[in-house]
Amino acid sequence: MRIKPLDDRVLVQVAVRAEKTQSGIIIPDTVGDNTKNKLAKVISYGPDCDDMAVDMTVLVTEFDGDKVEMDGVEYKIICRTDILAIVED
Fold first, then answer.
1. pLDDT in tens, 44-78
2. 76 neighbors 3 (Cβ within 8 angstroms)
3. For the domain with range 9-87, which CATH number is right: 1.20.140.10, 2.30.33.40, 1.20.1070.10, 3.30.1050.10?
4. What is the per-residue pLDDT across 31-42, written as a single tens digit (0 to 9) for each?
5. Which residues of 21-45 are buried (b: 16+ CB within 10 A; e: fewer)?
6. Does the model's pTM come out above 0.85?
């Protein structure tokens, strides 16, 4: 199955990160501060997103977009205007 976003929407896969305390305890992303911005990888994008590219890393907020599941993997479809920044190496 393949998802092709329409208009100004972008399909992203949010990176799952875990934080580690000073004592070595690992705190999964689902337990920590969910108000933080998240890194995500662009999977595909609609025709109105000229500045997007597949595999580009972007910064999104936790609560923007709609979650979708495809082949057991969770993705989000967000509006282009909800992308906070493009992360460059």
1. 999 999 999 999 999 998 888 999 998 888 899 99
2. no
3. 2.30.33.40
4. 555 556 789 999
5. eeeeeeeebeeeeeeeebebbbbbb
6. no
